[in-house]
Protein 1
Amino acid sequence: MRLRPLLAPVALCLALVAAGCSSDDTAEKSADSPAATAAESPAESTAAASPSADASEPSEPDTDTQQVATDQVAFDVPASWVTVDAAEAFSGDDATEDPVVQDLAARLGVTPEQAVQTFAQMDLIVTSDGERDAGVLTNLNVVHVPGALPTESAARAELKQIGATITSIEAVETGAGDALRVAYTLEAGGGQVRSQALAVDVDGQLVTITVTAGTETTSDELTDLVLDSLTAA
């Protein structure tokens, strides 16, 4: 079974968040996993720290930005964010033994081998430099496949498969093409994350950009940043 285009980035976000969530039990189980390595590498000492007392407050995205790009699209992210090499993060003989990967594969109805193969083919993964938003390592990823925009009903069905609760869904126009913006919540690592997916039709390619944060405010602000700056590459 092939991973659906909207589910693949959702799954990878969950992997990064699960490795970086504030749950001590989750952190102990996944500390040596490929997903944990990817999430912790930008600022290992900072990421290892427990969330502060005011972790429930939304973090403010940087005022300074940098442009990141794939072969299909370009957009802005906070200047302090760093890029993670997906192929490296999900390589190695033990990648399929990672409990985070196995859990994701079970949710998606695919084998761990299929999940790892898809994760390693991500076009782009960008994370905060270790700063957490309500205990969550804020991150963004991009994947593309040939195809058209999903319908609203198809998007709902795909996200429902992994237990997501959709909070809003709307058609939007971007500088790269017509898009579908979907906001949803998802249980991960003993807590709840707020994610938004932008599925964009770029000259016959379906590009999905997924933002994951710990609060709705941060998720909205980061997705707005991407949406306002999005162009075809």
Protein 2
Amino acid sequence: MLSAAAPRGADDPPADASLVRVPTRSAASPAPPPRPADLTAEQLRDLHARLAAGDAQALTDVHARYARYLVAVAARITADPEAAAEIAQDVLVHLWEHPLRFDPDRGSLRAYLAVITRRRAIDWLRRENARRPSDALARELAARSDSPAADTEVLAEITAAIVRRGVAELPTMLRETVELAFFDECTYREVATRLTIPEGTAKSRIRAALRKLAVRLEREGVRV
């Protein structure tokens, strides 16, 4: 049943910021995204209608169901909890301001939001890499401690930064498969389904992407 809320005009302000505030994670290595269960077709159409009508409670419902998931998706790419929270918030605001861009007859809301989140996280990573190259990261980490444990931490974080930058620079077809397989932890079959390609093609693209990343790591002096 639709809310009685009046339709939102183009110039109306978004819902209260508290509705789209998302939690941050303090851990350096974010956990795999905890996937919320998909809504039924009827529930999804009802939620979509409420969003389109400007029902703020609908946004609250979306936040409660998907916010932590979107933060985790973004954090798996950015490795930055604060950036991940900002990205997730931006995605929820985007949904609130442009609800008709989502078609409930073409897929789940979770998948739709995850795709936008991944794209924005990759854009953030590209900007961050341009601003702060890996050698600057190495100097910062090396300054933390002179202990062997710190050396191990430096190597791990530099390697992770190189891999994230390498993924962001892959050709689109390869990058999409790697993002789904490793950042969203999809199986080969799930990757194929998401991208509407044969499972064998998904496997081939992932392997090609991994070969390119391995070459990149070797070029950067990281043994694989």
Protein 3
Amino acid sequence: MRTLFFVDDLPTTVGSTYEFNNDDALHAIRVLRTKSGDDFNLSDGKGNWSHVQAKEVHKKHMTVELLETGHQDALGTHFTIIQAIPKGDRIKEAIELCTEGGADRIVMWKAARSIGKSDDKIEKLQTTAREASKQSRRFRIPEVMGVAATNAVVDQIAQADLAIVFHESATMKISEVVAPGCTKVAIIIGPEGGLTDDEIETFAAAGAKVALMGRPVLRSAHAGLAALSAVNTALSVW
């Protein structure tokens, strides 16, 4: 699979040349050692892509020729991960894993037991999602939002066809709560200290299903990817 880079002004005319000169170009030249004749993909992060070939490579930019262009439609199921803010660098890890797992939107949530902070990090976390999208060859960069209060999570539940709260005390399995045909899915991941009883009751009252992810108790930063994998499989998206 071809390497992917993002640009704001995606070229779309086959046969034309384009000056690739942003930070991604610098990475391609200095780190990946891209040379004349190499081909790769450019994308605007919104589903549009262009297959290009390097023609002239300079120290900080390169001229590429557009070989092919296209558009990748979004999947029929839209996934929102509502992630309680984990501590330290795990917040970045959570964004990376959820992006690689196919999340369309990641909402940072200030849960009652959240230790970490992300109020001043949303822009950086959006950059993290962008970088993870390149790594996973995604033509669509997920939106990172926040910081949401619990009442905003209730609003997200109301907008979803299926909302799932994962908790170790649950008795229902994922396979018992996932119904075919869901197109808007919200997945709620609690913090390291766990969800409070009030939070579980509030979300359940709003229509969310409380489910068990399995016997192992995962780190908060890892649970989103596991949940996405399980629900994608249950819905036959994967």
Protein 4
Amino acid sequence: MAGFFYSTYRRGSFEIIWENDIPKTRKINDWLPIYAVFQESEKLFLSDKGSLKSIPIDDFIVGKTPFESQESSVFWQKLSGPNQETYLLAAGLFTKDGGVFQLENGGLTSLNERFGIDSKFILTGVLDADSGLLYLGSKDKGLYKVRIDGTVIYEEFGEKEVKGIAGNENLLGLLHSQGLEIRNRETGKIIQVQNQKLKETQSNYFRRFPEKIPEHMEGFFELDPMISAEELEFYELHFQDSFFLA
């Protein structure tokens, strides 16, 4: 069944439907909370606080409740390996039980020891399939560069919290607690974009499009359009065409 579905933090899951070319939403369930959703074949895996639930896609669409669950950290991102293996990146909210895990046959295996990862708060990552390198950004230990064969190259990265990693074969973007760093692999040039510049971009955007200012902040200070540059929080980094989007 084709369609577009999304899940929110504390407002349930929805389907986007079209009526006379007008998009509308249909609520599917009221599950609270869901931090991330990953698809594996015909099954969905739902990252909850302290557990990873699974449910067939057809059951999810009609609003059924997951009946399979296993204790786990909070997972934030899924990565596919060069041999179609599945990696899940975890950072616990209240427990130090995160890291890198492999999802195989519905079960979880920690890869922290194999990859030499000593951080329990892995927030983001990206795989360079050509070189077999897995880049991992942590909340507390900087940036890891891991060879899928198990060799780890560690970079302290000024002890900055790495929030997002994205790019292509030439550009590598690292979103961190103080701004954005863009590395050009061909030229070796590094561009630093500080939070103050990112704040100016956000303010200009809201002035041009005031309708984009969030209406429902759910108590999250980072959604406040008046937030200062020093208090800016970012969660993801995306690369599209030749642009980085945070």
